[in-house]
Give the backbone structure.
Amino acid sequence: MNFTFEYPLAFVLLLLFFVCEKWCKPQRLSFYFPNMKLLQKVAQKRQWGLTLLKVLSVVSLVVALASPIREDAVVVKNDKGYEISLILDASGSMKMPGLNKFAIVKEIVNDFIDKRQHDKLALSIFADFAYVAVPLTYDKKSIKRLLSRVDVGIAGRQRTALNEALFLSANLFKSSTSKEKIAILLTDGVDNANSIPLNVAINTAKKYGIKVYTVGVGVEGQDFDPRPLRQISKATGGRYFKGDSVEKLKAIYATIDKLEKSEIKADKYVKKTYFFQYLLALGLLFYVSYFLVANKE
């Protein structure tokens, strides 16, 4: 545990304040009255109170500006695991009357995430267009929370930007040093968005050493075209699966556990607790008190 300031240079303002207090006082006209000593005593007490309020106000505000924080111990987590990008098809065909394939897939993926205790995960969604919902992270709760809010139609319903999804997901591994980089691409269709050529998506995955495991959901040749899925998996050293039942989908995700795990070094974690808001409130309180006392008749 360590107390420090995020912006210590802010304390220079305190130095400027005290210098100005000493040397920048305005010149005022002097008037002399009878009983001068008594008046001076009253004025000095009032002036002393005003000065104290002003100093306390400025000190509190400057310390707040310096942002006092408490830093807990830094945790560096080294472990063996995978870096896995989950790529899910959320096009209209994944949710048909009487068969919500996307809901089934979400349930299986949620279970898969729960078992990935030491892995980094990412989540990408595609339909009319593709987007990275969550980049590679250890924060499983964030992925599950976002996945619970994702549904068919969130990225459109008419098209399937499969190649674009693979391309975007592959770029998540640009700075990865993991030996085992995996993408699991699940779809029940074929790319018809034509936003990224298939060879470009495959070459990007190969460039970063990503094994792509493709999963066709539904009936092969009827619901989806297996040829591009086989091409992707073969070119990247992954595998192609037919997921025409819940049991097969579960088995597909289970095979990932059999892969060789590699060393993954996590980011450094520093828990920070901020206290500036208390000093800011205190400084404003002193300032208001100074204003009221200074303007009191």
